[in-house]
Amino acid sequence: MSLVGHIAELRKRIMAVAAVFVLGMTGGLLAAPGFLTVIKIHSPAFQVTWNVFSPWDGLRIYMSIALVLSLLVTLPFALYQLWLFVRDGLTPREQKAALKFIPFSVLCFMAGLAFAYFVVFPMSLAFTARINTQMDLVETYGVAQYFGFMFNIVLPLSLAFELPAVVLFLTRIGLLNPDLLHSMRRYAYLLLVVISALISPPDIISHLMVAVPLIGLYELSALLARWMHRREEEQECHDSEDAVLGQQRA
Fold first, then answer.
1. pLDDT by residue (tens digit) across 48-90?
2. What pTM value is reported for the model?
3. If you count Cβ atoms within 10 Å of the first and of the last residue's Cβ in the chain, which end, N or C, has fewer?
């Protein structure tokens, strides 16, 4: 396919993703009030009274929730469109393997979302509330500040849980290998500890509760990469043997 053809194909995929995003945003706008009610009633943290300190606070949260709901729908479709765009440059075996990363990446994202919302977010909110109580401060929560605090915790952790999918994909296309992951381990640990310190309360227990799962994800990614690398080597060896047998028979 020519360069113009690739650009036209890319434009087609982007337009399809944009259309799904708009449809998801429309559905998110319809579902946002009910979703907001569920979050308020069934919050994993303690119940708080939400206040607005600006005429735009309610609209801002309404649009933010619709945007998040739309992204949850658009993400798998966008990954599928990306696969459709690059599949012509892959072998049939690589096409099949790459397609498997789409549900796996969505699963990793949902696992990170659940861990961040049900574990880290309540822990962080309880820590800040304890500090406020010790200082005899009256807790009056603005809805924009509440959701901003929640999104700052939930979104980075959800993206961090994509690490196994990213590592496996990069290993599959040859940009990463188990030896490189092993040599980078100490630097990766340092980076993950810094990330956990930024998104968790400033105490050692909270840091560990966030850092340990992230480090575990890195080790899981390294193990999966080693398994995939070994499997590819075995497949290449098998293909070579089949080629030699075919030449001998010919």
1. 788 888 888 888 888 888 988 898 888 888 888 887 777 776 6
2. 0.74
3. C
Under a CB-based contact definition with an 8 Å cutoff, are residues 72 and 28 in contact? no
Strand partners, 110: none
CA gap 201, 55 in Å, rounded? 31
- The closest of 91, 201, 206 to 149, measured between CA atoms, is 201
Q: How far is CA 223 from CA 99, 123, 161, 170, 189, in A?
A: 20, 30, 15, 14, 16
Distance CA 142, CA 128 (A): 15
**Residue 17 to residue 74: CA distance in whole angstroms:** 7
- The amino acid present at 181, given as its one-letter code, is L
pLDDT at 178: 78
Q: Burial of 61 by CB count in 10 Å (0-12 exposed, 13-18 middle, 19+ buried)?
A: buried
* CB atoms inside a 10 Å sphere around CB 3: 7
Task: Give one DSSP letter per residue of 50-64, joined into a string.
Answer: EE-SSTTHHHHHHHH
> Is the CB of residue 112 less than 8 Å from the CB of residue 158?
yes
Judged by DSSP in three states, 142 sits in strand
Query: In which residue ranges of the chain is pLDDT below 70?
Result: 1-3, 45-46, 89-91, 93-94, 97, 173, 199-203, 206, 235-236, 238-250
| Structure token digits, residue 157 | 């952790």
Question: Per residue in 171-186, pLDDT tens?
Answer: 776 777 778 888 888 8
